[in-house]
Design goal:
This protein has 167 residues and is α+β, with helices and mostly antiparallel strands. Helix content is 19%, strand content 32%.
Length: 167
Amino acid sequence: MAAPAGLHSRYFAGSISMRAVIQRVTHASVTVDGRITGAIRQGLLLLVGIEPTDGSAEVEWLVRKSVNLRIFNDDAGVMNLSVQDIGGNILAVSQFTLYASTRKGNRPSYSNAAPPAVAEPVFGQLVAALAQALGRPVPTGIFGADMAVELNNDGPVTIWLDSRIRE
C-alpha cells in the first residue's frame, strides 16, 4: 500500500505492530469495579495495543525500550535517566483502542487489534518480561475489563512507541 501524500512510506510498509503509549507519571492506578487492581508511584504508565502477529520479538523490543528509555531528569534537569535508573515502577494496561482506525466514518474500527484469545497471552508475556527486567512485579489492570485509569502525567511526558518501525 502506498503512503498517502505527506506521510512517510515506512508507516505503510505492511501492518504496524505492537503499539505503546508511555507516560512518565508521579503516580498512576487502574480501578476495576471500584477496586484498585494496580497502582504505582513514580514511574511509567504503559498503555499497550497488540495486533494478531505480535509475539516474542515485539515483546522483547518493547521491554528493552521501555525499561531503558531515558525520560527522567538527572540532577542537571536533563532527561537522561531511565525508569530502571531511578528505581521507578511500571503500570501496564492493555488497550486495544490503540488500533482504532477512523478512516471510514466517525465510528472507530478496531479490526487491526488482536482478538482477546491472542492478545491476552502476549500481554501476559510482556508483563512477565517487564517484571524480570525491573526485578520487581509489574501491576496491571484486568485484561478485557472496563477499567478506570488515573494518572498524574509528569512533565507532561508522553511517548508513542511502535515495534514495527522501531520508534
